[in-house]
Design a protein that fits this description.
This protein is an alpha+beta fold and about 575 residues long. The protein is built from 18 helices and 16 strands. Helices cover about 40% and strands about 20% of the residues. The structure holds serine.
């Protein structure tokens, strides 16, 4: 059964049970600044799960585009990808466990209306209970009544059978369905065997029914919602794998055409899969309006594209191959999602990013080649990281190709030492912000953010803050960069900053978790260890946003009255670090 047919059958099955089909929301959440991407079908529906009335009613069904990047390292194995489609049926305070489980079972096993899977190969898990919610005997009984024998139903804890989108929001116990890919090995008859089968990918999770009747605040379950909801999610890629009798998602019809175009670019299968996955996700993100940048969604798109390019044998996706890959992706999704027809725009955006990457890549690669042929020391890996923006993982992939080792422990040690050095200063700074709140000092503080960003734009992404000192007379800023700045570069930086001052851009901050701050591309001081929550200051908003940086504040309210920015001195501070002294006049 093709993926198109699976989507069609799913929607029709629930439509026949009084559900309204709703379209997929964008991959970029519209009203939720706490997440970068739609990572589950429930996300766009949160307000309705919390009780707001949905215009299409209490029973909904959809296929939602999702992007998750936290398992990016796993991409290349049998089942991980960064973009996926989730089939979901929804009860917003309407039906609950009995109907949800019964319909899941019917859809999975019915030959006429559903997928016609073999009920003897189905295994299910349910919540074992804890202080937040009781053991889910009810769901287990429903499964038994449908014919699933007791020895194929397993009670598991929160790590496995509780679903919530994060630390806040609707959540609840869930019941998950697994399909046995190798029944010839003989039946699984107890929890230990099941866990082993799961570890060995002998069973694959095909569906999750979440019984959302609880709410979480700051990571703790605080009580029940005013209504009982059902949130189900079945990954289309995995269902296709099961239905098409494949042992990995890349051999399904969703990926096969894309893989064929990628084949010639990399000699090993894992790399081919990484390229196929990352370019596919990139195209879907571009179709939802994301462009490569250094912040937020744009930064993730940039990382995906650079990683795809890096995994090709020649560190390049030639234009012809790119056109063919994008064509294969568009072919799969143009009839399913909006804005998928813009093939030439997709190619153009990717091509432009590829050219930008080539520039920093070459610098870093040259440096890598100069390093020891008998291995990369922790210090060297650390330099590649701080000065050339090579994440450890990239250095490791490079080293592997050369058949040499990277001293990972040494790298981590360098990192720790650096963090220890900066910690005390950073703590003071982030707890209390600037000690001196004289208006001139505050203006220098904002000017420091502008300088940090301007230097990165003029000199490149390898520039990181290495130190800062502010008085009411001047700012002093240390940053990673190896060469003396030319007069022209200094002029460019000054002009850029004065332009922003002239525009009188508003300055504002948002509080968020440190993880989200970095994922969304916020600049931080290199090596500083931040607490769980940080403030991120933006200068300018939307398309006009110039700077986005973690900081305790305070800052000016808008850039207009800061004065004229002037670089007074640019000099070496220590090896690989330059120092600027500047004033506002
Ligand atoms: N929200 C649940 C999940 O993502 C079910 O849709 O697995």
């Amino acid at each position: 059964m093709t993926s198109d047919e699976i989507r069609k059958r799913f929607l029709a099955f629930f439509e026949a049970r009084n559900h309204t089909v709703i379209p997929s929301a964008s991959l970029v959440p519209e009203n939720d600044p706490s997440v970068l991407f739609t990572t589950a079908g429930m996300q766009p529906l949160v307000p309705y799960l919390l009780g707001q009335e949905h215009p299409a009613g209490k029973r909904l069904v959809n296929v939602q585009k999702c992007v998750r990047t936290q398992d990016i390292e796993e991409v290349g194995d049998a089942t991980h990808d960064t973009f996926f489609e989730m089939l979901g049926n929804w009860s917003l305070g309407d039906y609950f466990k009995k109907d949800a489980i019964t319909w899941s079972y019917e859809f999975l096993t019915s030959k006429d209306e559903g997928l016609g899977l073999d009920p003897n190969r189905l295994y299910v898990t349910v919540f074992e209970g804890d202080e937040d919610a009781p053991k889910d005997e009810e769901s287990a009984e429903i499964w038994k009544s449908l014919g699933i024998p007791e020895e194929r139903i397993y009670f598991l804890g929160k790590e496995d059978n509780w679903w919530s989108p994060g630390d806040n929001g609707p959540c609840g116990p869930d019941s998950e369905m697994f399909y046995d890919l190798r029944p010839e090995v003989g039946p699984i008859t107890n929890k230990e065997e099941f866990k082993k089968a799961d570890d060995q990918s002998r069973v694959v999770e095909v569906w999750n029914d979440v019984f959302m009747e609880y709410e979480k605040k700051d990571g703790k379950v605080t009580g029940k919602l005013t209504q009982q909801n059902v949130d189900t999610g079945a990954g289309l890629e995995r269902l296709a794998m099961v239905m098409q009798d494949k042992d990995n998602i890349f051999d399904t019809d969703l990926f096969a055409g894309i893989m064929k175009e990628v084949e010639g670019l990399a000699s090993d299968t894992k790399k081919q899969r990484i390229i196929a996955d990352h370019v596919r996700t990139a195209v879907l993100l571009i179709s939802d309006g994301v462009v490569p940048s250094n912040t937020e969604q744009g930064y993730i798109l940039r990382r995906l594209l650079r990683r795809a390019i890096f995994n090709t044998d020649n560190k390049e996706i030639p234009e012809e191959s790119l056109a063919a890959i994008v064509g294969a992706i568009v072919f799969k999704y143009e009839a399913v999602y909006e804005n998928m027809q813009n093939t030439s725009q997709f190619i153009q955006v990717i091509q432009k990013e590829q050219e930008a990457f080539k520039k920093t890549l070459d610098q870093g690669l040259k440096q890598f080649e100069k390093m020891g042929s008998d291995g990369i020391s922790g210090k060297e890996a650390f330099t590649l990281f701080t000065t050339y923006g090579f994440p450890l993982e990239l250095t490791q992939e490079l080293a592997q190709e050369e058949g040499i080792e990277v001293d990972e422990e040494g790298f981590k040690k360098e990192m720790r030492e650096h963090q220890d050095k900066s910690r005390s200063g950073a703590e003071g700074k982030f707890k209390g912000g600037l000690a001196d709140t004289n208006p001139k000092t505050i203006a220098y503080h904002t000017a420091t953010h502008l300088l940090h960003e301007a230097l990165r734009r003029v000199l490149g992404d390898h520039v990181h803050q290495r130190g800062s000192n502010i008085t009411s007379e001047r700012l002093r800023f240390d940053f990673s960069h190896t060469q003396k700045m030319t007069d022209e570069e200094k002029q460019k930086v000054e002009d850029m900053i004065n332009e922003i001052i002239k525009k009188d851009l508003p300055v504002s901050f948002t509080e968020m978790s440190t993880g989200v701050a970095f994922e969304s591309g916020a600049l931080g001081e290199f090596g500083v260890k931040y607490g769980d929550k940080v403030k991120v200051y933006s200068v300018g908003e939307g398309d006009d946003r110039f700077s986005y940086e973690i900081c305790g504040g305070p800052h000016v309210e808008s850039t207009g009255a800061m004065g004229t920015f002037k670089i007074k001195k640019e000099e070496a501070s220590s090896a690989g670090v330059r120092r600027i002294k500047a004033t506002l006049e």
